[in-house]
Amino acid sequence: MILVNTDYISGKEFEMLGLVKGSTIQSKNIGRDISQGFKTIVGGELKAYNEMMNDARALATKRMVQEAEGLGADAVVNIRYASSAIMQGAAEVIAYGTAVKFV
After folding, report:
1. From CA 61, how far away is CA 21, in angstroms rounded?
2. Per-position DSSP letters for 10-66, written without gaps between them
3. Given the DSSP bridges, would you call strands 75-87 and 90-102 parallel, antiparallel or unpaired?
4. pLDDT the model gives residue 79
5. pTM of the entire structure?
6. Under 8 Å CB-to-CB from 57, ≥6 apart: which residues?
7. Whole-angstrom Cα distance, residue 22 to residue 70?
8. What is the mean pLDDT of each run of 10 residues along the chain (103 residues)?
């Protein structure tokens, strides 16, 4: 499966199958949430939250690809990501794009 954030793939012609998406809502456990709260006092990178968001993007991408495979797609073009806070310490990540089949 080819995944790109452009609306084309060099040297390939394709037909659009439709919008595909994958999402997840992730949170950290209370212990890590408290430790990251203390980190905001002194500043610096919140590594536990970076890890959480990386995991969430990977899972959302995997779910998007599974949906595309279900349509018989060869690729997903014009991929985008969005995130939003659901509550303190929890975030939703969505990956979406257009599933395409090569002609």
Report:
1. 8
2. TT--EEEEEEEEEEEEEE--HHHHHHHHHHHHH----HHHHHHHHHHHHHHHHHHHH
3. antiparallel
4. 98
5. 0.83
6. 81, 93, 95
7. 13
8. 96 97 83 54 72 92 98 98 85 96 97
User: How far from 30 is each of 36, 53, 57, 76, 88, CA to CA, in Å?
Assistant: 10, 16, 21, 36, 11
Q: Which amino acid is residue 46, in one-letter code?
A: L
Residue written as token pair 């084309």: 8
AA identity, residue 98: T
pLDDT of res. 53: 87
Strands (E), the chain: 2-3, 14-27, 75-87, 90-102
**One-letter amino acid of 16:** M
Sequence-distant (≥ 6) Cβ neighbours of residue 66 within 8 angstroms: 22
User: What per-residue confidence (pLDDT) applies to 35?
Assistant: 54
Backbone phi, then psi, for 18, in 5-degree steps?
A: 140, 175
**What structural domains and CATH numbers belong to the chain?**
2-102 (3.30.110.70)
